[in-house]
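Technical note accompanying the year-one report. For the benefit of new consortium partners, we illustrate the data format agreed upon in the data management plan: each record pairs a sequence with a structure-token string. No post-processing was applied to the example shown here.
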Amino acid sequence: MNAANPLHLTLTKKTHSCIRLEKDGRTLVIDPGGFSEQDAALGADAMLVTHEHADHFDEGRLRAGLEANPAAEVWTLRSVAEQLSAAFPGRVHTVGHGDTFTAAGFDVQVHGELHAVIHPDIPRVTNIGFLVDGSLFHPGDALTVPDHPVDTLMLPVMAPWNKISEVIDYVREVKPRRAIDIHDALLTDLARPIYDRQIGSLGGADHGRLIPGDSTGL
């Protein structure tokens, strides 16, 4: 799926649920967590974090990004913001469902409130998804359906809280033009062709995945 960017937005996949978006010389990073590259947040002008779990939020990576670029800012929910705001006053913004904001030139809408159920005995944490430029949706750890058309859906394909039938039904409900895998670090190479075939044939949308480091135009 490497491609020259025909429009204005370039998506680069990082490991697991982390992605980088570039537009007009500015960079937005979503979910630079503990499974993503050590430098995942470096070079970011803005960072978004969906929730507090370590595979999506790594304080050290975020701090590195904020320290490397004194103009960089973070938008996230309260549970994450509380861990960063004292050290970076005025640069960490708390947002929730229904909020809209502009981050480094990207227009962002916030959708969702709770993490998907892992098990009834495990309390649910808060979780928000981000719709960027009215086009790309990153749901974090939830199968949130935004009340807005989605062109590119970042699709959590393998997690302790989902099964493939739910993933397929999620694609069908959102109805994106295409779905690109995230939350895939635990998916083995043996499983990938099975997931590709079933999601691709049953989801009703163009489905693909990017190797970490690969980019595609949106």
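Partners are asked to follow this layout when depositing records. The chain has four helices and 14 strands.
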